[in-house]
């Protein structure tokens, strides 16, 4: 929740409405209305990207609606980075990669239940999205691994910090520079239709019912992880899990889209993340494991390949005594991930001056933990094969300070959602586009399948957010 406090000043509340108003002007009285060419619902990464891209393509009569008092949505909490292939930063660093390999590993990670066309589109446009962000002053040139990827393609800010706290301020600044208005604390309630076409949205704006008319509505409303009732509707087995989601992730977009005739796909595919600190619901970045950390159980033993996919690591954790693990790492990993200092400041990190001191701090057998680390070190120092099959992101821990964070699975990401095509048009059950309705980001389904690779959500929201803005601008030109 700390990120929300930091980002509280990023609301674009000072922009005058660019559309026509009726019944006494914007927000004046009951039953007021405004008109724009396009309305974007949600000021997270996808919504902000859509607005900026649409504006730069010449569609300037637009507005963003955000139901919370701050921008950013779940993007504020994005920690790992943005997966992308064939990027200029990879090439500069001698990292060989391909869009086809990225697509194949994304499909494999989702157990081949994702939409191949959407996945290929995302991967083919990922390098361009990295360049686009760079042109906005958002440089993601620090590259690491995430679970399920065989190549370093997870792009982070230069200092290795959590990507969300660079991405959101950068996108907000770009929207402010363009004078794109954002209505904060404006909750979308229902999509307006004229026949089969979506023509606007009914909202609660400052406690008053308002209709925002538009030629195109872009849903960028995010997920449902903060709505326990909706989570258990689709996944009863997840009752009682903590969530990494921000409070506004309550699934409104799914309800509005379905009521307007859109098809929802794979809604039962709600991802749990294996490394969530349970007392604060803090997500421990996947880059920590990608940079070399290991997971040990309460007995001080490793139990699984830490770089496997999130679903498998989560399942393995739940089988351990107490259903939790310690994420253990040394000073090298600490220094390479600036987010860890924030975790430590929040009191989430246990520390010891040696393996034995750390073992005492986390109450595990010192000899067992030392044996575990010795075996892990042998993977890189002696070329030993890992008994759990880990081949990526291994480093030999150095002598000296050791750290650990207690983690267990938490609700993280809705991988299902509104069915779309490559134009981000919302589709009905017959596969036909619903006129005037578009969607991008976590509110959509079909891209990740039944397991999302760490770093792919940011790629998803930026690629498809940018894409939907350009598509709508072209359609209304």
Automatic annotation (TrEMBL):
Domain of life: Bacteria
Keywords linked to the UniProt accession: FAD, Flavoprotein, Oxidoreductase
Xref: Pfam families: FAD_binding_2 (PF00890)
Residues that span the membrane, as ranges: none
Residue ranges constituting the FAD-dependent oxidoreductase 2 FAD-binding domain according to the UniProt record: 37-458
Broadest EC class assigned to this enzyme: oxidoreductase
EC number: 1.3.1.6
Cofactor(s) essential for the protein: FAD
GO molecular function: FMN binding; fumarate reductase (NADH) activity; steroid dehydrogenase activity, acting on the CH-CH group of donors
Family: Belongs to the FAD-dependent oxidoreductase 2 family. FRD/SDH subfamily.
PANTHER family: FAD-DEPENDENT OXIDOREDUCTASE 2 FAD BINDING DOMAIN-CONTAINING PROTEIN (PTHR43400:SF7), FUMARATE REDUCTASE (PTHR43400)
Protein name: Flavocytochrome c
